[in-house]
Amino acid sequence: MSEGAGSRRPFACTALNKPTVKTASSTQGAVGAEPPRGHIVATVTLIGAPWDGSSSFQRGAAAAPASIRQALWSPSSNSCNEHGDDLSAEGVLDDAGDIAVGEEPAAARVAIEAAVYGVLARGGRPLVLGGDHSITYPILRACSAHGERPSIVHFDAHGDLYDSFDEDRYSHACPFARVMEEGLARRLIQVGVRTVTAHQRDQATRFGVELFGPARWREALPVIAALQEPIYVSLDLDVLEPMLAPGLSHPEPGGLTIRDVLEALEAIHAPVIGGDIVEYNPANDLRDLTARVAAKFVKELVGLLRNPVG
Ligand SMILES: [Mn+2]
């Protein structure tokens, strides 16, 4: 529970020496066993975005939110993360349910943007469960509408930077091209990408993407740790070695371990304003292995999102 926490995470070292910048949630202190974290100002809101209509290869990711929730609350584990946040405690995690995305892509994007904006406008911190990766673009639009222009820490086997894919500019292969074209992010830091085509390399250069492939993902750690501005975390589960997460539509061997991704998340010191976990495809899963991995990332991302220390 404590290994690494004191060295990188700000709560244990920095935050305790600073005054609280905002009023804490009404339940702070209500959980007696919870270790002091400081700066607990936000309730995280889980939102399901069951949309896989922009997938280029296999559908199935629309079923992910329900499976991830089931794994999250399974009695096979408890509801505490590695930093001692109890997700079942009052004021830690709300669940807004699933967005009614419908069948039409443009309408789905509008619905996702509106739902995420609603959470941000209430002072919440959205953690969105995809769905395919196309959902990240409307989420970042919602952040922008709320006045946020975060830097993105993006875990993925793929750059998702295509200008267009299968004649679809809103494909799940394209969201970060749209995000960067519209200036919705300050920086885009990609970790684990290992499928860079010539076109995507051109796009990465065009947008100034900071790319850390799987062989040098650790070089991203000091870059992530040095970020001061608000951060958005986009976590495509196919960043992982597919043997560790078989429930994917696009398994790409040679990926990161679950602990590698957690280590990169631990490097974040800046406030995290939102995040997504995408591309889980239950139809390809084995014994809910990948659902459990996604639920694990929910737990640890909740810890990051509810402690927006700056
Ligand atoms: Mn991917």
Shape: globular
CATH homologous superfamily grouping: Ureohydrolase domain
Topology as H/E string?
A: HHEHEHEHEHEHEHEHEH
The largest β sheet comes out as: 8 strands, parallel
Biggest sheet strand order reads 2-1-3-8-7-4-5-6
Defining key terms:
eight-stranded parallel beta sheet; globular; 310 residues; binds manganese (II) ion; alpha/beta; Arginase, Chain A; 10 helices; 30% helix
Topology:
Elements lengths: L4 H4 L1 H4 L30 E6 L14 H9 L20 E6 L6 H17 L3 E6 L5 H10 L5 E5 L19 H7 L6 E4 L6 H10 L2 E3 L7 H7 L4 E6 L21 H9 L5 E7 L10 H17 L5
Parallel strand pairs: 1-2, 1-3, 3-8, 4-5, 4-7, 5-6, 7-8
Helix pairs in contact: 3-10, 4-5, 5-6, 9-10
The structure holds manganese (II) ion (MN).
Structure, described:
The model is unreliable at 1-37 (pLDDT under 50). The protein is α/β, with parallel strands linked by helices and 310 residues long. Helices cover 30% and strands 14% of the residues. An eight-stranded parallel β-sheet has the order 2-1-3-8-7-4-5-6, sandwiched between helices. The relative contact order is 0.18. It has a single domain (5-16, 32-305), classed as 3-Layer(aba) Sandwich (Arginase, Chain A), CATH 3.40.800.10. It has helices spanning 5-8, 10-13, 64-72, 105-121, 136-145, 175-181, 198-207, 220-226, 258-266, 289-305, and strands spanning 44-49, 93-98, 125-130, 151-155, 188-191, 210-212, 231-236, 272-278. Helix 9 (258-266) links the parallel strand 7 and strand 8 (272-278). The radius of gyration is 18 Å and the shape is globular. The structure holds manganese (II) ion. Residues 156-158, 236, 238, 250, 279 line the site of manganese (II) ion.
